[in-house]
Design goal:
CATH class of one domain: Alpha Beta
Order of helices and strands: EHEHEEHEEHEEHEEEHEEHEHHEHH
Strand content: 15-25%
CATH architecture of one domain: 3-Layer(aba) Sandwich
Structural class: alpha/beta
Radius of gyration: 19 Å
Oligomer: single chain
Low-confidence stretches: none
Number of strands: 15
Helix content: 40-55%
Largest sheet: 7 strands, parallel
Mean pLDDT: 93
Distance between the termini: 50 Å
CATH superfamily of one domain: NAD(P)-binding Rossmann-like Domain
Strand order of the largest sheet: 3-2-1-4-5-7-12
């Protein structure tokens, strides 16, 4: 396997950090786009090369893509606070601008790009009658949940793939959990007895640990399955109520049983966030495992969640001791 030079957009987010670690461990050279000196220092400590810049603003950072053999677009533009339908749509428009700036840099480069790995979600896919989605599922024309973000970007990346040969690989992610992002707040709300199930709680979700997301992305970089798309989920979909029970028991907290209708949850957390929480979707990872040869470190939430809960509780005890 020849080492790649990989440009990572979204390097300091939930996915970016474990991705950089895995790329470096696999012997690849990583250029990571960062916005400030403290993030640059963190990237250097991971063994990667920091590139200062803002994905939303053209600038000298674009020159650093000239000899890259792969680009991973793990950027995010989700707003803080309630994720309303309007905010999700606006976030999608922001990501379109990010993507177009990346495309400008790629087309101005002097080396042919081998792979452009684009991360999107399951919310873009239309489930079958039994609520499963896979790579052959049609793309929805009525996006809901986080799909309101990805649906803005899809026409742009697909047009680039067909019109000027962007070597596109699309990864449809399940709900990504890790020690950053939504999951720590999820734990806090359960611990503080402020959690409520959205809808009946009997809907299925497909999850994926952030470390296995990194495995899938690196496999896409190394295998270069251009023009293909993959569903990236773990082996076992889980009902919302079953998942929160498992997490609450791990925390040693009372199991939440309160339920709120989707419309009311939308008023609290935003319509797009409520739609994703209540979505009933089960993803199949067969193509990911067969074609990308991805071997999951955490095959189900039962293996992936306990270490995160232990880390959260240890951090909480330390903070309480310092208070």
């Amino acid at each position: 396997m020849a080492p790649e030079t990989v440009f990572v957009a979204g390097a300091t987010g939930l996915v970016g950090k474990p991705l950089i670690h895995r790329l470096v461990d696999r012997g690849h050279h990583v250029r990571a786009l960062v916005r400030n000196d403290s993030s640059a220092t963190a990237v250097l400590a991971m063994g990667a090369e920091p590139v200062l810049g803002d994905l939303g603003t053209p600038g000298p950072w674009q020159d650093h893509l000239g000899d890259c053999t792969s680009v991973v677009d793990a950027s995010q533009s989700r707003p803080h606070g309630r994720l309303t339908a309007r905010r999700a749509t606006a976030a999608g428009r922001s990501r379109v601008r990010f993507t177009q700036n990346l495309f400008t840099a790629i087309r101005n480069g002097h080396s042919p790009l081998g792979t452009y790995v684009w991360l999107t979600g399951l919310d873009e896919l239309v489930p079958s009658a039994d609520r499963f989605v896979d790579e052959d599922s049609p793309i929805t024309i009525r996006p809901r949940g986080f799909g309101r973000i990805g649906s803005q970007i899809r026409p742009v990346v697909e047009a680039a793939h067909h019109s000027w040969g962007l070597p596109l690989v699309s990864l449809h992610m399940g709900l990504i959990y890790g020690n950053e992002g939504w999951f720590p707040d999820y734990l806090r709300r359960i611990q503080r007895k402020r959690f409520a199930l959205v809808g009946s709680g009997q809907n299925f979700s497909s999850l994926i640990c952030v470390h296995d997301v990194a495995r899938a992305i690196v496999a896409a970089v190394e295998h270069r399955p251009v023009g293909r798309r993959f569903v990236v989920v773990d082996d076992e979909p889980v009902r919302q109520a079953e998942f929160v029970t498992f997490v609450a028991e791990g925390l040693g907290a009372p199991v939440p049983h309160r339920k709120v209708p989707v419309w009311l949850a939308g008023l609290i957390v935003g319509r797009a966030a409520a739609e994703t929480a209540a979505a009933d979707v089960r993803g199949s990872n067969e193509r990911m495992k067969a074609e990308l040869d991805v071997k999951l470190e955490f095959p189900t939430y039962r293996e992936g969640i306990p270490p995160l809960v232990e880390e959260y509780l240890a951090t909480s005890r330390t903070q309480a001791g310092l208070a």
